[in-house]
Amino acid sequence: MVEVPDALSTLFSAQIETDGDRYIVEIPKSEVSHGAVSPGETYRVGLLSQVDASASATAQPQTPKQDTDPERANTGVPQPPVDEGEIRNVTIESLGDQGDGIAKVERGYVVIVPDGEPGDSPTVEIETVQENVAFASVVDNDGHTV
């Protein structure tokens, strides 16, 4: 099993591209816009090989979401790790520019929680899911229904 350090900034899937005598791994724009990485900074990069379908049930804690959008099906683009209507326990890590709580779930995917404070661990319902961010409402905050 691979040990993941607490200093992990982001996790995403990407293909390795060839450019002459070098190879390129592109960082998704969303990782920069969410502050996971910054242009001009130096990072340590680790690569994990792609897990085949038969091993994924035991190697990964959650099964990837199936794409139901025919325009994006089979494009290789990772899908959001949450679904609308899903109930989740999250931990607010920081505040966004507009004062909302920001929680991160699998692969660094961002969930925006109104009125969340860093350190809060509410139970939320995912209301809107977009490619790079989801919006949720608090359904239980430390045992008190909101």
Top keywords for this entry?
7-stranded mixed beta sheet, mainly beta, OB fold (Dihydrolipoamide Acetyltransferase, E2P), 2 helices
Describe the structure.
This protein has a domain at 87-145: Nucleic acid-binding proteins (OB fold (Dihydrolipoamide Acetyltransferase, E2P)), CATH 2.40.50. It is mainly beta and 146 residues long. It has helices spanning 29-33, 53-59; strands at residues 16-19, 22-25, 87-89, 92-95, 101-104, 110-113, 123-129, 133-141, 144-145. The longest helix is centred in the middle third of the chain and has 7 residues, at 53-59. The model is unreliable at 52-67 (pLDDT under 50). The strands form 2 sheets. Strands 3, 4, 5, 6, 7, 8 and 9 form a 7-stranded mixed sheet that branches. It has a two-stranded antiparallel ribbon with strand order 1-2. The N and C termini lie far apart (39 Å).
SSE pattern, N- to C-terminal: EEHHEEEEEEE
From the N-terminal CA to the C-terminal CA, the straight-line distance is: 39 Å
Helix content: under 10%
User: How large is the count of helical segments?
Assistant: 2
Mean pLDDT: 77
CATH architecture of the domain at 87-145: Beta Barrel
CATH topology label of the domain at 87-145: OB fold (Dihydrolipoamide Acetyltransferase, E2P)
Oligomeric category: single chain
Derived from helix and strand composition plus strand pairing, the structural class reads mainly beta
Task: Provide the CATH top-level class of the domain at 87-145.
Answer: Mainly Beta
Rg of Cα set:
17 Å
- List unreliable stretches of 5+ residues: 52-67
Instruction: Name the CATH superfamily assignment of the domain at 87-145.
Output: Nucleic acid-binding proteins
Strand content: 25-35%
Shape: elongated
Tell me the major beta sheet.
7 strands, mixed
E-strand count: 9
